[in-house]
Fold this protein.
Amino acid sequence: MTARKTAPSPSPPRRDLTIGALAKRARVAPSVLRYYEKEGLLRPGLRTAAGYRLYGPEAERTLLFINRAKRLGFSLDDIRQFLAAEQPAPTPGRKKPVPGKAPRNSDVTRIAEDRFLEIERRLTELLVLRHELEVFLREMSGQLPAEDGARELYRRLVDQVHFVLGRYADN
């Protein structure tokens, strides 16, 4: 018996998306895509005969990356550097990028580390503020009159706040 050779399966046809379809998939307005294109963050692959933008799968991945990076607090300039660092080096004979503009991996790493340290600093500030507020609330509860039940009511409120904050701290 001879082994039967099968022809390699053809790659799936490229599925280009119009600006509206890509915007809908990414849950942004089409104007956001136009803005990213103007800023050099996103490039349409082709245009139809009527001039409509068509975006390939790589544009959708880039857009999802931009959205995630924005959620993490990176600026568009930071994101531009991240995307530029991902571009392949120019091949001989092709136009070279502007000198000094291509970020190195160390630049990208520094940007990400700086963002991480900024978040750590803000978290520390919030934890200090939370502690100061706890102390303030305890001091306030000691100053309320005990005879009308306000002190006990206030302490229960403080305990409830601590319970809720503790649940968030555990997550």
